[in-house]
Amino acid sequence: MTMLAASILLAIAPAAAPQAQPLPEGDPITVIAGRMASVSVMVGQDEQGRWHCSMDGSSGVPALDDRLCRAVTDCVRKGAGSEADVTQCVTRSKSTLIEKFTREARRNS
User: Under 8 Å CB-to-CB from 33, ≥6 apart: which residues?
Assistant: First the structure.
């Protein structure tokens, strides 16, 4: 796959999910959020115009990783013009994803 020069490599700072009470350090959601925060995501477009996403790690939850790739790709596709704009969009996306994951996990437990 040939990546265009417009590919963006993002090393996003951890985005803390707002929570009513701090979770214990060993809490699975805390661990997953920490893993997600340390993942770098690369989004690029090939010569045929198809978007591709790859990650240098995992949150440990494949469905959450997929959502992160889609969110980052959306940030880039929607025209975030600079690396700072993309970073801000991705940070918000990570926070939102962790919030949704937390609600889903608590609902299912």
Answer: 14, 16, 17, 59, 98
Residues with Cβ within 8 Å of 26's Cβ and at least 6 positions away in sequence, in order, are none
64 class by beta-carbon count within 10 Å (0-12 exposed, 13-18 middle, 19+ buried) = buried
Q: Which residues pair with 54 in a beta bridge?
A: 42
Contact call for residues 90 and 72 (beta carbons, < 8 A)? yes
CB count in 10 Å sphere of residue 11: 10
For the CA atoms of the chain, what is the radius of gyration?
15
pTM over 0.85: no
Give the model confidence (pLDDT) of 28-38 as tens digits. 888 898 898 88
SS3 call for 8: strand
